[in-house]
Amino acid sequence: MKALQVSSLSSDLSGCGLVDVPIPQRKDGEVLVRIHAASLNFPDLLMTRGEYQFKPEPPFIAGMELAGEVIEADADSGFSVGQRVTGGAKTGGMAEYASVPVRNLRPAPDALTYAQAAALGAAYTTAYTALVELGDLKAGQSVLVHGASGGVSLAAIDLAKHMGAVVIAATGSPNKMERITALYNPDHTIESNGRFREQINDLTHGKLCDLVLDTVGGDVFDESTRCVTFGGKLLVVGFAGGRIAEIATNIPLIKGFSVVGVRAGEYARQFPERGKRIAAAVSALAEEGAINPAIDRTIPLSQWRDAFTAMDHRELVGKVILTPGS
């Protein structure tokens, strides 16, 4: 089969390439899946450089997230041959086939295409874990979402709008605001370069934000500490801006807000029943048509470099999907 293999770590993707490797042999407790769509996530890019917290030893097949159809499964697995599934693991998704542990798969919502199903899991479970599970979001609350063109942030905007929140979408790329608005119609859009606290103050009529979801870090995090209302929560999802911010503990003490770390995958591993509930809730919302994963583009796996480069250059508004076998 064709697979995108990371043979060595590098800063310029020079250690990556499309290779021919054997179709994986399915083990007990695993499901062999023919992959129709693989979703590119920012950690996939970081792993090619050895910059993600999970550091697989090369060579490994890239790709955390996939959707496809079942080829082989144990009789008691709960999955049947031909069934549409979505899920994945930390690696292995950017290939024509993958053998995936049963616990890492779930039925793909019938309402979604393979591409949409591949784009659903990581982004929406992270957004749901952040906003609903840890943030306790309620209708009418104000939510500031940074990095608004990224997969997780767009999922957060989509989910928060569905739940009746007042959503402020913030991006460092003003040229993306029109596309973000066309996708999910946030209540407000702002540019997150420089100081934006006064804008937030004006938009919320002095109340500031109940929740701030930060995927950027650095200066954006620093300024966000000035935008959280008393009793609110600053949800730390990532550091796409590069600098990992620090905070003096007197700031959350005086302002009375919480800084909450969000690792949806680890949260589900630590609390399996909660993880299952979150995944089921996301699938149900997708099945109802209440949420709609944003896909920027779909390209063949053979053009994988274009996908990684587009992500690295911050060109995307939504997910890029790779299609193995084309």
Question: What characteristics describe this protein?
Answer:
single chain, 326 residues, alpha/beta, Quinone Oxidoreductase, Chain A, domain 1, 7-stranded mixed beta sheet, 6-stranded parallel beta sheet
Helix and strand topology:
Elements: E1 2-6, E2 16-20, E3 30-39, H1 42-47, E4 60-61, E5 65-73, E6 84-87, E7 97-101, E8 105-107, H2 114-134, E9 142-145, H3 151-162, E10 166-171, H4 177-184, E11 188-191, H5 197-203, E12 209-214, H6 218-224, E13 228-236, H7 250-255, E14 258-261, H8 264-270, H9 272-288, E15 295-300, H10 304-312, E16 319-323
Parallel strand pairs: 9-10, 9-12, 10-11, 12-13, 13-14, 15-16
Antiparallel strand pairs: 1-2, 1-4, 3-5, 3-7, 3-16, 5-6, 6-8
Helix pairs in contact: 2-3, 2-9, 8-9
GO molecular function, one term: oxidoreductase activity
Protein name: NADPH:quinone oxidoreductase family protein
Pfam family, one: ADH_zinc_N
Folded structure, characterized:
Residues 11-322 form the Enoyl reductase (ER) domain. InterPro entries: ADH-like_C, ADH-like_N, ER, GroES-like_sf, NAD(P)-bd_dom_sf, Zn-ADH-like_protein. Pfam families: ADH_N, ADH_zinc_N. This is NADPH:quinone oxidoreductase family protein. The protein is of the alpha/beta class and 326 residues long. It folds into two domains: 2-112 and 294-323, Alpha-Beta Complex (Quinone Oxidoreductase, Chain A, domain 1); 123-265, NAD(P)-binding Rossmann-like Domain (Rossmann fold). It is 31% helix and 27% strand. The chain contains ten helices and 16 strands. Strands 3, 5, 6, 7, 8, 15 and 16 form a seven-stranded mixed sheet that branches. It has a six-stranded parallel sheet with strand order 11-10-9-12-13-14, with helices on both faces. The protein has a three-stranded antiparallel sheet with strand order 2-1-4, with no helix packed on it. Helix 10 (304-312) links the parallel strand 15 and strand 16 (319-323). The longest helix has 21 residues, at 114-134. The radius of gyration is 20 Å and the shape is globular. The chain starts with a strand and ends with a strand. The model has no long low-confidence stretch (mean pLDDT 95).
